[in-house]
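Support case: user asked for a sample of complex input and structure output to validate their parser. Sending the pair below.
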Amino acid sequence: MLEDKNQQRTSLSQLGEFGLIDHLTKNFEVKQPSTLKSIGDDAAVLDFKDKKVVISTDLLIEGVHFDLAYMPLRHLGYKAVVVNLSDIAAMNAKPTQITVSIAVSNRFPLEALEELFDGITLASKAYNIDVIGGDTTSSQKGLIISITAVGEANESDIVYRNGAKQTDLLVVSGDLGSAYMGLQVLEREKQVFQVNPNNQPDLDNYTYLIERQLKPEARTDIRELLEKLEVKPTSMIDISDGLSSEIIHICKQSKVGCNLFEEKLPVDPQLINVCEEFNIDSTTVAINGGEDYELLFTIAIEDYDKIKANPNLTVIGHMTQESEGIHLITRANTKIPLKARGWNALEE
Amino acid sequence: MLEDKNQQRTSLSQLGEFGLIDHLTKNFEVKQPSTLKSIGDDAAVLDFKDKKVVISTDLLIEGVHFDLAYMPLRHLGYKAVVVNLSDIAAMNAKPTQITVSIAVSNRFPLEALEELFDGITLASKAYNIDVIGGDTTSSQKGLIISITAVGEANESDIVYRNGAKQTDLLVVSGDLGSAYMGLQVLEREKQVFQVNPNNQPDLDNYTYLIERQLKPEARTDIRELLEKLEVKPTSMIDISDGLSSEIIHICKQSKVGCNLFEEKLPVDPQLINVCEEFNIDSTTVAINGGEDYELLFTIAIEDYDKIKANPNLTVIGHMTQESEGIHLITRANTKIPLKARGWNALEE
């Protein structure tokens, strides 16, 4: 949160739109065999042969989805990519390409956009995807990022939200709620900074939570893991809005009910400590906190033995008849209807 | 430009993000055989079999790319789609799907978004494409539209910017400059309206120009026309920034020069009249005015006989050796170097 007053500032209009695009995209390499033509024409050209094409898109708006007061541009670029790759992973598909469109107000110098594109480049290398196109323009206010992700899959491997069966188990990758609490920590530090700009924050006790918020990862590894375990999920979704919201999506589309067990929810020890410090119930955070970008999926009960020993996966509940509804079973064995309290971008 | 004070206003937060998406997308039908799964999951799923996939994306920002003072939302929705389909047409490919992401500030009621989506629906029907996904969120300021268009083509049919040869002819579809002058007329009427809101504009002499600005069409018909004429362009681009800018793109990427003939530039009679009224040179407008969304392409000189009688196509110049440069040959037979003075979104 400390500004370097001597940083270099090159105005965007010096370069012009085409110069800017050339400058920002010069480090992008084409690695995917399905990319026939990348940046530089009216459109990119892709060849997926006998594979199916999976496509998803997201819009990130400054002041709505991110706050540059604590979100470094490099992390923002990385996260913007990850969020979209997570949607492809949630189809049990392999992400292969993205397009990146950016609108910026004049207050951003070239150096800021370079930081942002460093993050995008880092993510594209980490996930072995090609940046194949986009658009760069000015905005009236703030920074806007629009990313479209493309992936490939065999038709028989694709997993939708609507395939869960009444007796299936509900499984989640990784742990829950940490990204949300990371955001709470950052918001608090921002307020402290506003009161006393010389205060040096000590964030050692929050590193995992902050990393989950600022540098989330897409669980593209889960597809490979499940393939190795010979498990095909019956339904799948990624956790962006919050666990409860995603469970309800699966239940509605699959026409099933669900029992979710509080005692099974995977949470990091750091989350427990910080929830105590903030006097927030960690179960509420695990259920409603969004932006974990873990995968939530259902499997046939017969597949339980194949996944039970895996440290990446936790069975957190089971599906039921639709008429039984969607419930959280608490540690005290009380049944509470599950409601979607996840983050809603329109209720600002 | 007259406001209906009694119009219904439903706030977006009443519906919530998922309710809004359901409401706005309920009229979208799936018609393309390549659309396996449309809106409603983490991603859409497409199947192009042995065809190649063509993909392009554009970001439209209120106050930068459009002004709602004279751009009705229905037209804006239509135009936002057309602009993207034009990029697919410029690859000599057939547009098949789009994703649509929207960010709006709270000042937009539901009814405004319905108007916008009416225009998007109209365009998707007119061009027989499926709306397969998107994102809806709030913005800090104004309206932001991000569209990604997907198309299909046989590999051998795809036309890039870099295939023009030294002896090729330069051809353009339709006429040039009208969209730009339509914008000038609308800007003038906006200023008149600001001075005297009771003034009723008489726009009869400007209908064609205004339509070219407010409701442009993508030349998806040209691909079929050229196929019928058995002509495959050697290079192609669409005219969004302006003819001169697009010619320079083709020349640079194809490593050729070009002579463009002033007397050959196709302009509408209405453009000539209005240019006189505004005291602007119509050639300057034809060369530098953007947003015509016509196709500019090169063909082998042997194909001249096949296209010469077609009223949709005009030969406006020929390519040369790269060392000869890029020139406009005026009616007075003077040779002037061609410069890209097209609209630059970053020079606001």
